[in-house]
Amino acid sequence: MSTRGTTDSAILRAFDREAGGYAERWDVSPLVQFWRGRVLARVLAAVPPGGRVADLGCGIGTDARLLQAGGCRVMGLDVSGEMVARSRAHGVDAVAAPLQDAHLALGGDYDAVLCNFGVLNCLPSLEPLAAAIGGILRPGGQVFLVWMSRHCPADSLARLRRGLLPRRGRRQANVSGVEVPLRWWSVGEVVTALGPAFRVRGIEAIGLLDPPPDVGGTLGWRSAAEITVALLPGLRHLGDHTLVHAVRS
User: Fold this and answer.
1) What is the distance between the alpha carbons of residues 41 and 243, in angstroms, rounded to a whole number?
2) Would you kindly state where each structural domain of the chain is located, as residue ranges?
3) Which CATH class for the 9-248 domain?
């Protein structure tokens, strides 16, 4: 699930290594699949049957396969060749390219763009993302951006209970033995980067009441309760991830 504006060697090395064990670490988690399902339900509700979706940072193709099963035509892009190889092996059309080349690699006139989970946090700047979306999305097209939130009380409290330092605010993350730089974007920064050509339709917390599975989060009653409060203005930016849904004018 990786992409960034430049093909930094550390990013490439990290996510090439991560590709081999990604499914075993994340796709088997019922909680992660619940979070993923909430995001993809938003995409499927907004895209007409047969609509074209560009999956930026497609990883091993998990999102793309589910969107295809829902009737979408999906093209994936990832900077990691290993991630792309696994996407293709799972029946997903995908190309290996950096984000700033998305318009060259994917073409244009897409009905929707998805950039899911921690992709944005690996970007040193949001400018390549905004340019890429503008180059491939048709007027009236939908954008779904999901990234690790700057603040998540459920995650921080779970880590403190285990004697761990909070993850939020760290400048690097260890991905398969490689240190990857992180940025903790605010909702305001992401919306500003999209620019005046986009109108925000919704902001939603993903993982508001449950910590992530690596610190004990499990699918349960809190997950169900979260759905009723994840859109509230005072809470929607406090999930493990934040979802912004916008429409191009």
Assistant:
1) 12
2) 9-248
3) alpha beta
Q: What is the DSSP letter of 109?
A: -
Any alpha helices (H) in the chain, and if so which ranges?
9-22, 30-46, 62-69, 81-89, 102-106, 127-136, 153-161, 187-194, 221-229
The amino acid at residue 200 is: V
Model pLDDT for residues 81-133, shown as the tens digit of each residue = 999 999 999 999 999 999 889 999 999 999 999 999 989 999 999 998 888 99
Return the residue matching tokens 């990234």.
147
> What is the spatial distance between Cα 3 and Cα 162, in angstroms, rounded to a whole number?
31
3-state DSSP assignment of residue 67: helix
Dihedral sign from CA coordinates of 74, 77, 82, 83: negative
Are residues 2 and 122 in contact, defined by beta-carbon separation less than 8 angstroms? yes
Helix (H) or strand (E) segment spanning residue 143: strand 137-148
- Taking the C-alpha atoms of residue 222 and residue 207, their distance in angstroms, rounded to an integer, is 10
pLDDT tens across 175-185, in order?
Answer: 888 888 999 99
H or E stretch at 242? strand 241-248
d(Cα 109, Cα 52) in Å, to the nearest integer? 8
What CA–CA distance (Å, rounded) separates 230 from 27? 23
* Distances in whole angstroms, Cα of residue 213 to Cα of each of 17, 20, 25, 184, 236: 21, 19, 10, 20, 20
Rounded Cα distance, 48 and 44, in Å: 8
Residues in the chain: 249
